[in-house]
Fold each of these.
Amino acid sequence: MDIKQIQDLIRFVSKSGVNEVSIEQENFKITIKTNQPSTVVHATVPDVQYAAPAPVAAIAAAPAPAVEAAADTSKYVIIKSPMIGTFYRSASPEKPLFVNVGDEIKPGSVLCIIEAMKLFNEIEAEISGRIVKILVDNASPVEYDQPLFLVEPV
């Protein structure tokens, strides 16, 4: 299974209302549970059989930044991902980034793009403020409700 197939499976499971799905193939096992506030993915992949282990590790580790950031975010607003997909900080590699740390934003400002199933969705700010931290790396997979930005409201 590649990262796109895993993302499609997560989307399907979250929309279907099923609480848990497990798939086991010869050298691959994945379990998706949705009985918690956000989707949890456990994957076991042998290093020698899978060519790109980094994206799977990124999916499994995605909730960690939210826990780490939660400790000092009491005065900040967290902008979260409204969908599962791939996070991009600019419209293309040649174009400038939508926002950087320290930038002032206002409602309607484009913050990033999340690509889901070949559709590019602009994520816009709903508040005014200043970007304090960008919590996701460019071209990384993101989950529904995953924190993307910390914003200091103005």
Note: The two ends are 44 Å apart (CA to CA).
Amino acid sequence: MEIKEIQELIRFVAKSGVSEVEIDKEGFKIHIKTGAQAQAAVAMSAPPAMQAPTHSVPAVVDATPAAAPATPAMPAGTSVKAPMVGTFYRSAGPDKDPFVKVGDRVQKGQTLCIIEAMKLFNEIEAEFSGTVVDILVENAVPVEFDQPLFVVAQD
């Protein structure tokens, strides 16, 4: 099963309100479980040769406007979101400089960060030119699908 298929399945389960889904397809097993704590545990198991990690994803929770917590104000600009679940890295290695810092000018296609997912390091590139206004995630922390990572003021 491809990452995009897994991401689409997670989105579908979160939106549908189903509390639990388990799929076993050609030796690849995925179990998605949503709960009242607004998180779903996703456990994937593959054949012994390649074991997948366990991730958490947000689940859909209905909340009335009075019960919704105040959301911190997002800096002006366009947010660059995580295209996948994984671990966010600002640089190519612990002894390397970060790809970008606040105030840096970025060009379309320039690497902004790396997200490690299932032992693969995926470079996340700018989809447009602009200036980095804010970095919303700390280095080496897990990120969720569609989580804002950067705020970039477009040209």
Note: The chain has one helix and twelve strands.
